[in-house]
Write a structure and sequence with these properties.
single chain; mainly beta; 7-stranded antiparallel sheet; 2 helices; 7 strands; 45% strand
Amino acid sequence: MRRLLFSLLLLTCCAVLGAGQQRPLITEDVDIIPPGTIRIEAGIDFMQGAKYTVSGLRGDLTRVGVIGINFGMGPNVEFQIDGVAQNYLSINSRGPSATPLDILPGANSTNDTGDFTLSAKFKLRNETRRGPSLGFTPTNRKADFWGVTIARVKDGMLVEGWNCFDFLTCYQQLGVIAMPGA
């Protein structure tokens, strides 16, 4: 009985912590550019009705100077530098703020410089005939397992980090999970 209660408590904690880690990220498909190549992307982003819960602000966000530079380092490694030169927020409404804001009470817009991130994409391991890639019995199928690690650096210090791995596609390639429509 004690073991059962401990197991239920552990599962509940994992579920609660897992739900708390859900973050809506703008992500790209995991594709690695060929070694020795560089991809440069530039543009503008616009998002209506952006909500900032800590500051209590809601409005339309315009990001000017969205820049992405990708470096193909090898057949399974890519480094990226992504960032925004300037963020502009047209304030539509204000709610309670958890932090003191440096915005005048009657102001209807604000702006700041954006953050830049350095991230690495890498292919972890292929399945082989002798060994599984993720703990399953070998299926003799080729399967790719992709992952992205993103770190945000501010003032020379690592302030946030995210990891995202594509388990679903890998499991589908191995036949562990059925492909849609199969």
